[in-house]
Write a structure and sequence with these properties.
The chain has nine helices and nine strands. It has 286 residues and is of the alpha+beta class. The chain has one domain. Helix 4 packs across helix 5.
């Protein structure tokens, strides 16, 4: 069954069986991640270590004070009865004088600790709040470092083997990234990125684009691309130009943990096969 079919969008009020309770029953395992050691890129503080409960708190805080916000918490079932938070989708609309924002995240089941594997943040700037492209690129590079490849309105950070992949691009200074961002991706660098992977058949640039476009963010929806990807993870930043060439109208930040998609899928399948698909109750004292 697809996640779309199994999701039930709930209001914030009704209580569901907590992830911690479920985890205690099914002996959760920590899924592998592309972002290990000192590599912990984040979006609003959400990293590969973040669980659904913690991410929800971050989303609520980020959009606090906007009465026009929409919040959807997608619940999925693990086995016949155990429910958990599978997706978060929070947003506030763009107004004439107020910027809009959309926050989306996908999480694995309690068997794999209900950890994040996809998170995105999209900022849609009001006309009077559009930032300078140069300033945004500098902020991104100050926080995340030198990107793997730049072009097509994107900065891509491709992770493999606990490090950011380098394909020889000279993007170590914000001015160089600014000069390249609106040009097509350098085909020689793209080929080198694929050739140097040593595995996989799918460009990680294409994989992250498809994950953003996908209506479903479930493990089942992303697993095929993840297995063929030429990286362990990717952090992507896209800047959509404004009518003023030096300004940005939309900024989108995406974190996709390809390695976690694969690992969590395997852990979840193992738990289901072992019969750990639902919490077990003890007999009451009579």
């Amino acid at each position: 069954m697809s996640l779309r079919a199994s999701l039930i969008v709930l209001a914030l009020g009704p209580a569901v069986l907590s992830t911690a309770s479920l985890a205690a029953e099914i002996k959760p395992k920590t899924p592998d991640s592309a972002f290990a050691g000192k590599l912990h890129p984040d979006i609003l503080g959400i990293t590969a270590e973040t669980t659904a409960d913690a991410a929800r708190s971050v989303f609520e805080t980020a959009l606090k004070g906007r009465a026009d916000g929409k919040n959807e918490i997608g619940q999925a079932k693990f086995g016949p009865s155990a429910s958990y938070t599978a997706t978060l989708n929070f947003s506030v609309p763009l107004g004439a004088k107020q910027s809009g924002e959309a926050l989306v995240a996908g999480f694995s089941s309690p068997a794999s600790e209900n950890r994040v594997y996809f998170v995105s943040r999209t900022l849609n700037f009001a006309d009077n709040e559009q930032p300078a492209k140069a300033d945004m690129i500098k902020q991104v590079m100050d926080k995340y470092g030198t990107p793997t490849i730049v072009g097509d309105q994107h900065l891509y950070y491709v992770y493999r083997g606990n490090s950011i992949v380098s394909v020889g691009g000279k993007f170590n200074k914000p001015a160089l990234a600014l000069d390249a961002i609106d040009k097509p991706l350098d085909p020689r660098m793209a080929l080198k990125l694929n050739a140097d992977s040593g595995r996989g058949r799918g460009s990680c640039v294409a994989v992250v684009k498809r994950s953003v476009a996908a209506k479903e963010k479930s493990l089942a929806a992303l697993i095929e691309d993840a297995r063929g990807a030429n990286c362990d993870g990717v952090f992507s930043v896209q800047f959509t130009p404004s009518t003023q060439a030096d300004r940005i109208s939309i900024a989108q930040f995406v974190l996709l943990d390809v390695k976690r998609v694969i690992s969590a899928s395997a852990i979840d399948a193992e738990a289901m096969a072992a019969g750990g698909d639902a919490p077990k109750g003890s007999a009451p004292k009579l």
